[in-house]
């Protein structure tokens, strides 16, 4: 044993001094005895009694990079120090100078550490830095703990956790290995100021006592006050919150304020969160209202191995149903339930659902429930319907599948005019091998839907007031009255579409690019149109079966010319496209549910089929021609321009055929020579972006559609502006020219302060009809935001939309609470 211990002692340098009291032994024997006695205590690993790398420990308020801890045996304490002193008479071991101590995953650094073997207490003094196994760092001047760190006290304490929260106290007492009481404690989740660490943080909570229960993971504050920049703003005799390590814990959440209306009265919400299990939780949010009583709200959520789902329920036994006299809410009980979920079958397939049921269609809007809120709780979007659906989606490397059934719950009360889709199925695939040297793809679409009542859209003032839409025309050929549109037909509609496409590009020796393409599309259609008043003016009533076939062949030609200069390069590319196909059969005689939008501009000039959906298909021979030019500057920036026109070569022009909603009319394509379309974009650098899109009449060159957009992004601010000018489209219901400007911007006025705003200016009416103004502060520990918003909401029948004014406020203290509030009012009309 002696030879072994001499080997261990030889590791000590000449700077290390080891003293023993009560022995009259030579120095070398004293050193051996000290280490032998300490090792017999079973606490100190003799192999670790070596000097520290530095001569002294300098306090650093910022935690240094963690050092790899020495490997310790079970129940052994590793010590490194400049000097180790063993008092045999009193059974004490003292380590002085750059002391580093490691025990059970916890490290202690200090100027001096004394371990009493009799009392099993560990006493540390001077520049103490203790790091526990969870990453919590505690700074102190005096620390007295049991050797297992379960009990003791700390003076002049400051603690930094791995979650970037901080606590400080004049004294902390620890007992039972679970409770820590901080006297005159301070808690914050804000980082100290880099320039002045002594400066008060943005916010902090001071308490006469702060009790940390590590078993319950709770912080209890007694006689607490909330301070911002060192200034007290709120006093609380008592409050509690989960400690920063808790991600979810049962308890009451921050209360909320409901501004209410004259029908409901003012309200206060008191949410309670229940962490049922690691994979599920629930939130109960009763709302107490002065006029209608208690609105109960509950939400249950569960996450499973392959997905998650949630269920929300609402209910109220109204104290004063008469407040909604003449409205859908005039009933004793009102409520709703909604649910959604999504699950993965494997890495390529998911299925899920969304579902909503309500006692009456105006329940959500009367009580301003979740559908009316954005993720921040603001009343920004006021939808007119809720979607219930069941879906299955699969995504492959070159394929896509989606099947779903859909039911829209109307908030306007016109439920019979809303279709039920059961189902709609889409599948597309691009083969990963060439067919005749080119790319081959195919797609299918199947839809089946039904609607109870016709949805008419009066497009003139006379039709809106005189009810002309439901008047049956005496002329059976007059299927499209000029006063109305049929947005949705009553009856059942089924369509199956299958299409295959092929294309291949060739480049000849002089650089010309030739791209032949071909496709064939087939539609099998069955429609059953109910003979309701006025419907026969638009569609044949009764049952109709149709088989529509559309083969297409075409050729696209491009010949790029490239000019290279010292300042950059320019590419000018003439483009011509010829498409040959038969006429569209059953044009205007079949329901059109998914191809109701039609905007002709430079983006779809070279589209083979310019209709947006499947219910209409473009037919007849057509030529699309244009020229595209791109300039790329060597020092950055690019200019891209496109100008062109489309020509109906032969056959029936599908865009000139009237259907029940006049799709294609007034589009610029409804004549043999289309309107001219052009686009121009310029990006000089990453800061600025400008673009212009225009459609001009092919005879007069009058502007039919014009949009100009500019964006700029700088270090501190960004702005965008869109100007739109659209000619009247009386066939679509736009009787006058529309012109307006939409602007938005944000300015970073300080390091963490942002001011935002947006406005829409109707130039025809010469008024600003929508705007948003807001300001916010965001950093790593605090959120403050305020917004003033105007938006439109819609009610039942033909009542004009209501322009709502809302003010939203949000404040959040990281690890403590986030609270939102809002107030709103409404003005009828535009």
From TrEMBL:
Keyword rRNA-binding: no
Compartments where located: Cell outer membrane
GO cellular component, one term: transporter complex
Domain LPS-assembly protein LptD central: residue ranges: 222-297
One of the Pfam families matching this protein, by short name: LptD
InterPro entries: LipoPS_assembly_LptD (IPR020889), LptD (IPR050218), LptD_2 (IPR045659), LptD_C (IPR007543)
Domain of life where this protein originates: Bacteria
Transmembrane segments: none
Gene3D superfamilies named in the record: Lipopolysaccharide (LPS) transport protein A like domain
Keywords for the protein's UniProt record, in alphabetical order: Cell outer membrane, Membrane, Signal
Keyword Membrane: yes
Domain LptD C-terminal per the UniProt entry, residue ranges: 333-753
Biological process (GO), any one: Gram-negative-bacterium-type cell outer membrane assembly
Family, as annotated: Belongs to the LptD family.
Protein's job: Involved in the assembly of lipopolysaccharide (LPS) at the surface of the outer membrane.
Subunit description: Component of the lipopolysaccharide transport and assembly complex.
PANTHER family: LPS-ASSEMBLY PROTEIN, LPS-ASSEMBLY PROTEIN LPTD
Protein name as catalogued: LPS-assembly protein LptD
Taxonomic lineage: Bacteria, Pseudomonadati, Pseudomonadota, Alphaproteobacteria, Hyphomicrobiales
Gene behind this protein: lptD
């Amino acid at each position: 044993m002696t030879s072994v211990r001499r080997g261990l002692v030889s590791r000590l340098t000449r700077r290390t001094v080891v003293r023993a009291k009560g022995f009259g032994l030579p120095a070398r024997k004293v050193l051996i005895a000290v280490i032998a006695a300490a090792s017999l205590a079973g606490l100190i690993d003799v192999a670790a009694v070596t000097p520290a790398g530095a001569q002294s420990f300098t306090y650093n308020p910022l935690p240094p990079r963690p050092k790899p801890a020495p490997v310790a045996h079970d129940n052994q304490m590793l010590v490194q120090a400049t000097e180790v002193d063993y008092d045999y008479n009193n059974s004490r071991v003292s380590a002085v100078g750059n002391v580093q101590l490691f025990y059970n995953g916890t490290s202690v650094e200090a100027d001096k550490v004394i371990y009493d073997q009799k009392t099993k207490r560990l006493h540390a003094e001077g520049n103490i830095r203790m790091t526990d196994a969870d990453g919590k760092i505690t700074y102190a001047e005096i620390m007295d703990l049991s050797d297992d760190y379960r009990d003791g006290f700390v003076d002049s304490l400051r603690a930094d956790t791995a979650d970037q929260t901080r606590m400080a106290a004049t004294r902390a007492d620890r007992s039972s290995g679970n409770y820590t009481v901080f006297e005159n404690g301070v808690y914050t989740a804000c980082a100290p100021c880099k320039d002045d660490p002594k400066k008060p943080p943005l916010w902090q909570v001071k308490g006469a006592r702060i009790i940390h229960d590590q078993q319950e993971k709770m912080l209890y504050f007694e006689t607490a006050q909330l301070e911002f920049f060192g200034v007290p703003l709120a006093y609380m005799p008592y409050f509690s919150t989960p400690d920063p390590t808790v991600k979810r814990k049962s308890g009451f959440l921050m209360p909320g304020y409901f501004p209410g209306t004259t029908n409901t009265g003012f309200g206060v919400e008191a949410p309670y969160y229940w962490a049922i299990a690691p994979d599920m939780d629930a939130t109960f949010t009763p709302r107490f209202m002065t006029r209608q009583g208690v609105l109960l709200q509950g939400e249950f959520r569960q996450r499973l191995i392959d997905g998650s789902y949630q269920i929300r329920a609402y209910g109220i036994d109204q104290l004063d149903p008469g407040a909604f006299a003449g409205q859908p809410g005039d009933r004793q009980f009102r409520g709703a339930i909604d649910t959604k979920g999504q699950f993965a079958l494997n890495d390529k397939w998911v299925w899920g659902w969304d579902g909503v049921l309500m006692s009456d269609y105006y329940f959500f809007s009367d009580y301003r429930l979740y559908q009316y809120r954005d993720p921040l709780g603001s009343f920004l979007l006021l939808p007119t319907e809720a979607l219930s659906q069941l879906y299955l989606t699969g995504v492959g490397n070159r394929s896509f599948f989606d099947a779903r059934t859909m039911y829209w719950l109307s908030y306007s009360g016109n439920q019979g005019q809303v279709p039920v889709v059961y189902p709609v199925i889409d599948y597309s695939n691009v083969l990963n091998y060439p067919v005749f040297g080119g790319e081959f793809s195919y797609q299918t679409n199947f839809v089946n839907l039904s609607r109870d009542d016709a949805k008419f859209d009066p497009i003139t003032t006379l039709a809106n007031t005189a009810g002309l839409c439901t008047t049956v025309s005496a002329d059976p050929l007059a299927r499209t009255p000029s006063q109305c549109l049929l947005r949705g037909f009553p009856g059942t509609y089924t369509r199956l579409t299958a299409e295959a496409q092929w294309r291949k590009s060739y480049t000849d020796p002089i650089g010309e690019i030739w791209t032949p393409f071909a496709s064939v599309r087939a539609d099998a259609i069955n429609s059953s149109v109910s003979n309701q008043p006025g419907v026969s003016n638009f569609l044949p009533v009764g049952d109709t079966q149709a088989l529509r076939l559309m083969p297409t062949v075409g050729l696209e030609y491009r010949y790029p010319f490239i000019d290279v200069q010292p300042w950059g390069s320019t590419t000018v590319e003439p483009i011509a496209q010829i498409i040959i196909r038969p006429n569209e059969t059953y044009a205007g005689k079949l329901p059109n549910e998914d191809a109701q939008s039609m905007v002709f501009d430079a983006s779809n000039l070279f589209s083979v089929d310019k209709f947006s959906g499947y219910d209409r298909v473009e037919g007849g021979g057509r030529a699309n021609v244009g020229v595209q030019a791109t300039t790329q500057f060597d020092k950055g920036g690019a200019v891209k321009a496109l100008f062109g026109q489309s020509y109906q070569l032969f056959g029936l022009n599908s865009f000139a055929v009237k259907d029940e909603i006049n799709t294609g009319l007034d589009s610029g394509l409804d004549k043999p020579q289309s309107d001219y379309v052009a686009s121009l974009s310029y990006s000089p650098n990453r800061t600025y972006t400008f673009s212009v899109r225009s459609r001009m009449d092919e005879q007069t060159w009058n502007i039919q559609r014009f949009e100009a957009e500019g964006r700029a992004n700088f270090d501190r601010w960004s702005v965008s502006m869109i100007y739109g000018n659209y000619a009247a489209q009386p066939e679509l219901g736009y009787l006058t020219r529309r012109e307006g400007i939409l602007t938005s911007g944000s300015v970073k006025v300080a390091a963490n302060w942002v001011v935002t705003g947006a406005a829409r200016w109707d130039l025809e009416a010469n008024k600003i009809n929508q705007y948003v103004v807001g300001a916010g502060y965001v950093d790593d520990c605090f959120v403050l935001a305020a917004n003033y918003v105007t938006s439109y909401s819609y009610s039942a029948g033909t009542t004009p939309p209501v322009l709502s004014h809302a003010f939203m406020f949000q404040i959040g203290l990281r690890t403590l609470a986030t609270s939102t509030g809002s107030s709103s009012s409404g003005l009828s009309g535009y």
